Amino acid sequence: MTAPAPTPARKRAAAATPPATDPSPAAITRIVVRPIATPISLGFLGLAAATFVVSGLQLGWISPLQKPFVGLILMSFTAMLQLVATVYGFLSRDSVAATGMGVLTGTWFAVGLVYYVSPASATTSGGLGLLLLASGTALLVPVLGALETKVLAAVVLGTAAARFFVTGAYEMSGSSTWKATAGWLGLALFFLAVLAAFAFEIEDTKRKPLAATMRRGKGKKALAGSVQDEVAHVHEEAGARETL
Fold first, then answer.
1. Residue 213: which CATH number?
2. Which of 39, 42, 83, 210 is the most buried if burial means most Cβ atoms within 10 Å?
3. How far is CA 64 from CA 68, 70, 171, in A?
4. Domains in the chain: how many in total?
5. For residues 174, 176, 177 and 179, what is the CA-based torsion angle, rounded to 10 degrees?
6. 3-state DSSP: the chain helix, strand, coil percent, rounded to 5?
7. Cβ–Cβ < 8 Å for 70, 115
8. Does residue 241 belong to any structural domain of this protein?
9. Is 74 part of any domain?
């Protein structure tokens, strides 16, 4: 039996229907998200080590002749840990943490380099003071961003910014008052950074928000929300969208 010839209406309907082998871009695009451990704890522990050692120098616990060795510690230990935290902060799609750790990485490396190359007779550096003032200002950017997601991280970065401001004032003026204030503020930052590192580490292990981290908004949803919440806007993020 011969099949009936297609009518003009059927021809138009067939032409308007896309073939099954021609899917839309949304159907063939795949975005791969790779789970990693949180880098925040590592970065905060590097910050704790740096501020503790520098406070020891500022408060007179160690001789000023140890300044070059303090510089080596800052460049080899702190800067390396925070550099890793910076890279994995970007890979984990957390621009606030990555920006904060990036500023800390560059600042502590610069402080360590100045300490290492400065002669023993040089107690302060105006250039370093200006850099610390600029770094403290730069840290306010991730601080404001973290206030919307992880308040504890904002407090730590804000305290680090204050420490840079006070230390910068000492480097610019040579005032013993600013020096002592920077040292004691550095110790407070040490305890706060260790507490934050512990809180974020426990939180990442338990896979649920802790009250100590004071998560809010997207920060809380990141641990308490569904998979759909996490990937709903991934196509709008840097690396997935067409342009930054």
1. 1.25.40.600
2. 39
3. 9, 10, 15
4. 1
5. 70
6. 70, 0, 25
7. yes
8. no
9. yes
